[in-house]
Amino acid sequence: MAGLKQRVSDLVYKVGDKVGDSFLSPPHSSFGQYVNRGPDDRRVVALTFDDGPSYGSTDRLLDALAEVDAVASFFCVGENVRANPELLRRAYDEGHLIGNHSIDHSRGAGLSLRDTQHIERGEDEIADVLGVRPTMYRPPWGWLTPWEARRLHSRGYTIVGWDVYTHDWQLPAPSTASIVDEVLEQTGPGSIICLHDAYPLKPAYEKTVTADVVRDVVPRLRDDGYEFVTVADLLGLPATRPLDDLAA
Ligand SMILES: [Zn+2]
Predict the structure, then answer these.
(1) In the chain, what are the domain boundaries?
(2) Tens-digit pLDDT profile for the chain (248 aa)?
(3) 101 CA → ligand 1 middle, Å
(4) Phi-psi sector, 98: left (phi>0), alpha (psi -120 to 50), beta
(5) What is the architecture of the domain spanning 43-242?
(6) For the chain, how long is the longest CA-to-CA vector?
(7) Which helix (H) or strand (E) holds 133?
(8) Which residues are the active-site residues?
(9) Centre of ligand 1 from the C-alpha of residue 38, in Å
(10) Gap from CA of 99 to ligand 1 centroid (Å)
C-alpha cells in the first residue's frame, strides 16, 4: 500500500512537473512575461548563473571568469546570500550583476496567490550586503505565473528567462564537453545562457563542471566574435536600484 501511494505521488509530481515546465517556463511560454534574450543585431551574449553564492562553486566560477576576463550575471538565493555575504560582495565588486532568485527557492511561493515575502526577503538579503537593490529577477525552477509576474513588475523587476538552457545542474554532473556543446548549439546574437554556479540551499557545495565550461566556452565564443556583458547591459537597463527605492 505504501508502495502504491509512493508511486501515485511520484506520478502526480512528474505530471505537475511536466505541466509546469510546459506552461510556466522559458523560453516558449509564461504568457510573454519573460525576457528571454536581448536584441539580435550584435554578437553580444549574457552568461547567467543560478542558485549561489556557495563556497566550493561560486568562488571557483569567479576565478574562472576572472581568468577569461568575462562578466556575468548571478541570480542568488537569499538564504545562500545570508550565509556567504562576502562571496556576494566579491562577485559584485568584480563587475558582475546580482539578481534576485527568491529567498529560499520554493516552487510553491511563486504559485501562491498572495505570498510576496519570497521576493522581498530575497531582495533584502542582497540589499543588506550591497547597499543597492537588484533590478532583475529569475523565478526559481523557471516557473512564472501571471500573478507572480504582476507582483514582480510592480516592484520594478525585469523577469529574466533564457534562450540557452543547459543541464549543468544534473547529478551526477554531465561532462564538460556535453554542456559546452549545449551552449554552442543554442547560442546566437543576444542570447541569455542559463547555467548554475551552485545548489539552492547549500551554502557550501563542491562543483567544478560549470567553471570548466566557462574556461572552455568563453574563448570559443569570443573567437566567433561574441562579447560578454551582464543582462542589464544586454537589455540596456539599470543593474541596480537605490536602497530607498521600494517600488511596491
Ligand atoms: Zn534556481
Answers:
(1) 43-242
(2) 668 888 878 877 787 777 667 667 776 555 678 999 999 999 999 999 999 999 999 999 999 999 999 999 999 999 999 999 999 999 999 999 999 999 999 988 988 999 999 999 999 999 999 999 999 999 999 889 999 999 999 999 999 999 999 999 999 999 999 999 999 999 999 999 999 998 888 888 899 999 999 999 999 999 999 999 999 999 999 999 999 887 65
(3) 7
(4) beta
(5) Alpha-Beta Barrel (3.20)
(6) 59
(7) strand 132-134
(8) 50, 196
(9) 21
(10) 12
